[in-house]
Design brief:
By secondary structure, the protein is of the alpha+beta class. The protein is 47% helix and 14% strand. β2 and β3 form a beta hairpin. 41% of the residues are buried. It binds a DNA duplex through α5, α6, α8, α11 and α12.
DNA sequence: GAACAGGTGAAGT
DNA sequence: ACTTCACCTGTT
């Protein structure tokens, strides 16, 4: 049977700014007050109920979900440290209630390999297809969800076995990553203890993993808030707001600043161009 | 048909 | 160190 927990006050978690800010690919909007998805092998329905946010889940305990939603971190305090100018004031205000999800490292690595030079609908489609084929099926409220496949399920595959994904040249990168993680060449526990610089070096040693994807893995999969991914949107923004391409400027919470800037730019670029 | 999409690596200055 | 380009695929 499913269980229901209260997560937090409604002001401390914005569903759209968290699930639709480009950091994750496995949550879908059901209504203005509800998303459904799957993480840590547990399906879930996250929804607003009056003044609080609640979660109904097929598994994973309350503690695991609290960690997943990073609920022990005070984002208001972090926001004040990265609010260095008017642009950031507006970006933070736009993203009120966003939280950086603590995703599983292997899922983050594989997902952001798929993300390269791709649009979000197709990323989601490819990831879903991978899960449907190799992940465990979990039911919640009559709907089937598919967990992200464990790395050993992918590490036994040969080149060509993922052709059905239509992931193109990214297939080789997925397999390389799976072999490396499964064999222990890449050890996430170790990367978690490493500095961001050390962990980044180990990740970019893999074929198909450059700085951008590695930084996404550090930020979204390994909890390193100082990792600062710079993608095309950040580069575009940096043309008129240079700090968007400067990972040093925002200090230890640079990654969170990045996500505020990224989502602000991606959703609102035309208005931003008029304002700055 | 061309250009583009949350990049990367190899080869060329 | 910086620039250019091919790489799979799907959509506009």
């Amino acid at each position: 049977m499913s269980k229901i927990f209260t997560l937090c006050d409604k002001n401390d978690l914005s569903l759209d700014n968290t699930f639709d800010c480009g950091q994750c690919f496995r949550w879908d909007k059901v209504s203005d007050t509800e998303y459904v998805g799957i993480a840590m092998g547990a399906a879930a329905r996250v929804y607003q109920d009056g003044n609080v946010m609640r979660i109904e889940t097929s598994g994973a305990d309350e503690e695991a979900w609290r960690k997943y939603f990073d609920l022990d971190t005070d984002y208001n305090t972090i926001a004040s440290t990265i609010q260095t100018d008017d642009f950031m004031r507006d970006a933070i205000s736009f993203n009120r209630g966003m939280r950086i999800l603590r995703q599983e490292p292997w899922e983050a690595l594989c997902s952001f390999i798929i993300s390269q030079c791709n649009n979000i609908p197709r990323i989601k489609k490819i990831v879903h297809s991978l899960c449907e084929r190799f992940g465990d099926c979990v039911n919640l409220g009559g709907t089937d969800f598919f967990a992200f496949p464990p790395v050993d399920k992918i590490a036994v595959l040969m080149p060509g076995d993922l052709a059905f994904l239509r992931a193109g040249y990214r297939e080789e990168y997925i397999l390389t990553a799976a072999y490396s993680v499964n064999s222990g060449v890449i050890n996430f526990d170790e990367l978690m203890r490493d500095s961001a610089d050390d962990a980044r070096k180990k990740l970019t040693a893999l074929k198909g993993i450059g700085n951008k994807v590695a930084n996404c893995v550090l930020l979204f999969g390994l909890g390193k808030t100082d990792a600062f991914p710079v993608d095309t949107w950040m580069k575009k923004t940096a043309q008129f707001y240079p700090y968007a391409a400067d990972g040093k400027h925002f200090g230890k919470y640079a990654g969170i600043a990045q996500q505020y800037i990224f989502n602000y730019a991606r959703k609102n670029m035309s208005n931003i161009l008029k304002s700055y």
